[in-house]
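Budget justification note: compute hours in this period were largely spent on complex prediction jobs such as the one shown. Inputs:
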Amino acid sequence: MSVEDSVYEILIKLTGKDRSEMTPETELTAGLGIDSPMALQLLFELEEALDIEITDEEAAAMETVGDVLNRVRQ
Amino acid sequence: MAVESVAPKPLTWKAYLAAFLIRGFTKLFCATYRIQIVEGADRYRSLLTDNKPVIVCAWHNRVFFLSYYLEKSLTRKGFDLTQMVSLSRDGNIGYLLGKWAKIKVVRGSSNRGGSKGLRNLFRAIHKDHSSILLLPDGSQGPVYKAKAGTIVLAQLSGAPLFLFSFSPDRAWRLKSWDRLIIPKPFAKISIRIPEPIQVARELSKEQLEKERLKLENALNELRS
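Corresponding output:
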């Protein structure tokens, strides 16, 4: 499974939305309804699944699905 | 996503000295207290046997006696407890005091939903099955106002909120933001531990606020 697939899988599990509803431009809060608990879980699951560490600065900069993909591809 | 972005201040010899003096002072005073659990003694004892993570909540101004009591009655007996300490210089002293009291420490703040500190606390519960010590009005107040991060952590982890409060029959109140309570030597201390609060996993924004208020009110009722 690619890194991109892993991100979408986590987002689908978390939001209950279909992958077809998500594009790199989709906003995490307004578009996917990610609130505080979901943000905590999203960041936690990304770190666990991809064995990465996301700093608070990086997390603060994540506003869209594309931002998340760009961060995990680094 | 809205999270904060600051790093902890470096540890200095002043932080070590301050922590050493505070710890000595705390141990000296606390050795003289007459302590009684007036509500929830069985609940408190069950923490050691149940082996299920909980989120211990207390107001920030209770930390002087609280840290001593948790060390004496829980962490020195092998209870796994993790605490979040602020990234400030004062937080450095709290970091050292926590470590010396056998409390695991993560740095950060519970103000925001996805902050690194909160993620590390969630990791401590989820992966290490550690209980958490949270001071819902910390680290900078306002005093007696619970922050939503405590509810978010309880919501996501499923760990119950285990409220802890105490009232001394005589005490000093410092002029710090939290009006820190230092029970006077030989004070009688009454501890109250009410029924834990379980937070539902799915909550709307309004329900989250209701749960936050419920925690705040419950802790404030324990003050009287």
